[in-house]
Specification:
Distance between the termini: 12 Å
Order of helices and strands: EEEHEEEEHHEHEHEHEHEHEHEHEH
CATH architecture of the largest domain: Alpha-Beta Complex
Number of strands: 15
Structural class: alpha/beta
CATH topology of the largest domain: Quinone Oxidoreductase, Chain A, domain 1
Mean pLDDT: 93
Number of helices: 11
Bound molecules: NADP nicotinamide-adenine-dinucleotide phosphate
Radius of gyration: 21 Å
Length: 353
């Protein structure tokens, strides 16, 4: 396939079970040209997130993606040609884009396009320093209202959001317990993220391990999955405990929709609070979060863990990894390296991929 063509993944068929390549169609088209108020970008790294499956399972009347349309998602990209005054050829940006080599975008979306700061690599921009990191940062520092010494429990703790939430909580002086699936994730949490305790929910009984690791109960539960683990955390919530509802990955599959929490009345008994976290609300504070996260990354206090799938053709497989639990760290798809010189003609004909 010629590199001057645009390889693309179209959404084809609503998932009725686990999502995978069978839900998409691999195709190619001419590289598009930007109109007024648009820019042509070359996508470099795709930010793959569980929430993306929601637009595939919902019917079109409920906002679901119509079959036959491009699979959309956030990416770090390089501007090739711009008809938007604030973006220039060569800029590396993080923006709403699509599962294709080249996209024409207007820079608007769930979050408007931002320029990636110098010194931030495109993979970091799509991962720890993208929506993933920002949500983890504000979920811990603001929604959780943490106090040093408190017991903080986080699920999907070795995933994109969870791995950063766990470490930010550690940096703020909390006692952190991570719950994750599998030995590799558990080992990473203990050795690299340096949490105080880790539970492998695949091989251990979460309830008894929580009792052992949190004998006084849980002050903060940062929830990435929902389902039975949320109930176990509710049961153990301490007086004035907080639950940060970041995500409900266990509920995203159409065939395995689990009910909401059974133990929610526990919130009354402990004067507890359960609060939803919406990353979009913090868009205007992006620079503040990036400054803190980047500072901790540079000083070595914060470690990133990336799970990189190489090649646009494997994007559906990368999405599936989030639901099988195969991803260790932030799930990314690498499409291309940024070319050193941006000359639209040369990039389109001879860019690396
Ligand atoms: N509120 C917001 O604005 C916002 C923004 C971004 C992301 N999010 C949410 O944050 C959560 C984490 O996103 P992420 O991108 O960092 O993904 P992730 O945690 O890296 O990947 C998903 C993980 O969820 C766990 N999982 C998968 N299926 C599960 C199931 N049926 N039951 C329990 N656990 C399951 C697996 O971890 P284990 O193997 O460890 O179980 C898997 O690795 C998602 O729910 C996402 O929607 C929210």
């Amino acid at each position: 396939m010629s590199v001057s063509m645009n390889r693309r993944w179209l959404f084809e068929k609503r998932p009725e079970g686990p999502v995978g390549a069978h839900n998409f169609r691999w195709t190619q088209a001419e590289i598009p040209s930007p109109g007024e108020g648009q820019m042509l970008v070359r996508n470099l790294w795709l930010d793959v997130a569980p929430t993306q499956v929601l637009s595939l399972t919902a019917p079109p009347e409920a906002g679901g993606r119509p079959p036959g349309t491009l699979m959309e998602g956030f990416a770090s990209s390089q501007v090739i040609e711009s008809r938007i005054p604030q973006f220039s050829p060569g800029d590396i940006i993080y923006a709403a884009s699509g599962w294709e080599d080249y996209s024409v975008i207007d820079g608007k979306g769930y979050w408007d396009a931002i320029k990636v700061s110098p010194g931030v690599s495109p993979n970091l921009a799509a991962g720890a320093l993208g929506i993933t990191g920002i949500v983890a940062y504000f979920g811990v520092t603001e929604v959780a209202t943490p106090r040093p010494g408190e017991t903080f429990v986080v699920s999907a703790a070795a995933g994109g959001v969870g791995s950063i939430a766990a470490q930010v909580a550690k940096i703020l002086g909390l006692r952190v317990i991570g719950i994750a699936g599998g030995k590799e994730k558990r080992d990473w949490l203990l050795s690299e993220a340096r949490v105080d305790g880790a539970i492998d929910h695949r091989s251990e009984k979460v309830a008894s391990r929580l009792d052992a690791l949190c004998p006084e109960g849980i002050d903060i539960y940062f929830d990435n999955v929902g389902g039975p683990i949320l109930d176990l955390a509710l049961e153990r919530l301490r007086s004035h405990g907080r639950i940060v509802l970041c995500g409900t990955t266990a509920r995203y599959r159409p065939t395995t929709r689990v009910p909401g929490p059974l133990n929610y009345a526990q919130l009354i008994m402990v004067n507890g609070r359960m609060e939803g976290l919406l990353g979009r609300d913090y868009f205007h504070r992006f620079p503040e979060a990036i400054a803190s996260l980047k500072g901790w990354l540079d000083s070595g206090q914060l470690k990133t863990k990336e799970d990189v799938v190489v090649g646009l053709e494997y994007a559906p497989a990368a999405l599936a990894r989030l639901f099988s639990g195969d991803n260790v760290g932030k799930q990314l798809v690498k499409i291309a390296d940024p070319p050193l010189n941006v000359d639209a003609t040369k990039v389109l004909i001879g860019g690396s991929s």
